[in-house]
TrEMBL record:
Pfam families: Redoxin
Signal peptide positions on this chain: 1-21
Annotated Thioredoxin domain residues: 244-401
PANTHER family recorded: PROTEIN DIPZ, THIOL:DISULFIDE INTERCHANGE PROTEIN DSBE
Protein name (database record): TlpA disulfide reductase family protein
UniProt KW keywords: Signal
Length: 410
């Protein structure tokens, strides 16, 4: 009997050790790949680490390391919840491999993508890229789409060896931190920020021309693109894309904050203040970059007489769902200024309806600058985030000078 008990104890201990081993992700670098509907891989890298017995990972895109702490492993199952964008991974682990799905929870449906990952792989596209004679460093005029759907953007790339980082800037924002390489006569770039997955490929015809470009976004988004080197390429003035309708000088709205309390621009806290109104959504990556900046901006300027209000336009009109997503956003960035749930969706037509003084809303984010008299002075469309380098620093300099000027007015 004693032998049986001892054998049983040893067997249970062995099973426990196996379960623990299966419930721990290998630490170090991984290569993950999201699979599009057209069977293309959107690769990215992430690093798994352990802190006080708790595992977490950092999604890596160029200089950005996006921290994810909600990682749960049970047996051979792994559940990873993104801190933003209402998305998650549901995976199975086998040795140093993961497989399963990445799921985006939209307002009215879920969108799953197949996903695989392998431990111990630090490269993104190629372990050893094919030798190349090309260098894409510099500024490019890039055209996406064809015919009436053509959209001119600005590409900014930096190539070190065969590694390439950079982004594309559009009138409504940028594609954030892209990373990839030039291999032979081809360019490869990708990004995954926890909520949005992008893949760009193109043929490097020469050092001044990119042709046959393909762009894959998420599960099924596809487009074509080309680019030519143009160090003078620039976008339209971001302050010229939206305006007030004739006869309007002020903005007027009342929406509920995350606690259900109505907040209006006519409230006493905004009187005789410079007010920044941020049109945003928890689903919007450029809005996240702007929010990260706006939190620090608010710390700097709120004591001098500036207030900020976030107007949230979510994927759903359901207040409780929007409240949950925005609470995650508020906690992630430690936002101290009010975020209001408008009850309108992120459809740009719906957004414009909620603010009838505006001619239109071109994109997210849109930032409205109001002076101490309550008059709208500027409307800025889009946001060039830290992935855009000098564009980001130029915006900050310009925006804060405008703030200083408005604060100086009597």
């Amino acid at each position: 009997m004693i032998k049986k008990i001892l054998f049983g104890a040893v067997f249970v201990a062995a099973l426990t050790q196996i379960t623990i081993a299966q419930s721990t992700l290998k630490t170090g670098m991984w290569r993950g790949a999201l699979i599009t509907k057209s069977a293309n891989q959107i690769p990215f890298n992430f690093e798994v680490s352990s802190t006080n017995g708790e595992q977490q990972l950092a999604i890596i895109n160029a200089t950005e390391h996006f921290k994810v702490t909600d990682v749960i492993a049970k047996g051979d199952s792994v559940f990873i919840k993104m801190p933003l964008f209402d998305s998650e991974f549901r995976l199975k682990q086998s040795g140093g491999n993961l497989s399963g799905q990445y799921i985006r929870h939209l307002g009215d449906r879920d969108v799953p993508m197949d996903f695989t990952a392998t431990a111990g792989i630090p490269w993104r596209f190629f372990k050893i890229p094919a030798k190349t004679n090309y260098n894409v460093t510099g500024r490019w005029s890039a055209v996406f789409g064809e015919g009436n759907d053509r959209d001119t953007t600005v590409g900014e790339f930096k190539q070190t060896g065969q590694k390439v980082t950079g982004t594309f800037l559009t009138t409504t924002g940028d594609y954030r931190f892209l990373e990839g390489s030039v291999s032979g006569d081809s360019l490869y770039l990708s990004c995954f920020d926890g909520g949005h997955a992008f893949l760009f490929t193109a043929k490097v015809s020469d050092n001044n021309t990119l042709t046959g470009g393909k762009f894959f976004s998420g599960l099924s988004g596809k487009d074509v693109w080309t680019a030519v080197r143009n160090e003078n390429a620039k976008l339209p003035d971001a302050y010229s894309l939206s305006a007030l309708k004739p006869g309007y000088k002020k903005l007027d709205f009342t929406f509920k904050d995350l606690n259900g309390k109505p907040v209006s621009l006519t409230d006493a806290r905004f009187k005789n203040k410079v007010v920044i109104v941020q049109i945003m959504g928890s689903w919007c990556p450029n809005c996240m970059d702007e929010t990260a900046y706006m939190v620090n901006y608010y710390k700097k300027y709120q004591p001098r007489g500036v207030e900020v209000i976030g107007l949230a336009y979510e994927r759903t009109t359901d207040f409780s769902k929007s409240q949950k997503a925005l609470a995650q956003l508020k906690n992630r960035f430690e936002i101290k200024y009010p975020i209001l749930i408008t009850g309108y969706t992120s459809n740009k037509v719906e957004t414009a309806k909620s603010l009838p003084a505006l001619t239109k809303v071109v994109g997210f984010p849109t930032t409205i600058i109001i002076d101490k008299k309550g008059d709208v002075r500027k409307i800025h469309t889009g946001f060039s985030g830290p992935g855009t380098g000098e564009y980001y620093t130029e915006f900050i300099s310009e925006f804060e000078k405008l703030t200083d000027d408005l604060l100086g007015e009597k």
